[in-house]
Amino acid sequence: MNVELHVLGRAVKQVQYRQHRALDTALAAVGTTLAQWDALRAVARRPGASARELAAVTFQTEQSFGTLAGRLVAQGLIVRDPGRGRRLEHRLTPAGERVLAAGEQVADEVLTAHFAPLPAEDRATLLRLLHALTPDAATAPAVEGL
């Protein structure tokens, strides 16, 4: 067993866990959760996308995303329109746009505080190193799935 790699893997998970907890707690103040806000963000970046596409960019299964999307529809934050075949296309409502914008402000504050201990140069290095481990992320036009 390579202890160093296990420690590294756990450290990455710890940072992610702390970030998610902080975001989820702060997003509650604007009436949403991290999962909901991330879904709204994905729908905004891909209007008309299918549940399959949105599930992939939010790191969920299609079934989980479908359940989440149903809750967002019930809250009046997104609409699902019929597409070709059985495809449902997702779009934000004006209420969804407002929740997304409020969540973006919250996320900016939380992430600024979360990464404050690292100078800008170290943050750039960290991002470069993480992209080296996920090559497809380095070419992605927008960061998804906090």
From TrEMBL:
UniProt record, GO biological process: response to stress
One Pfam family in the UniProt entry: MarR_2
Superkingdom of origin: Bacteria
GO molecular function per UniProt: DNA-binding transcription factor activity
Domain HTH marR-type positions: 1-135
Alphabetized PANTHER family for the sequence: REGULATORY PROTEIN MARR, TRANSCRIPTIONAL REGULATOR, MARR FAMILY
Name assigned to this protein: MarR family transcriptional regulator
Lineage: Bacteria, Bacillati, Actinomycetota, Actinomycetes, Kitasatosporales
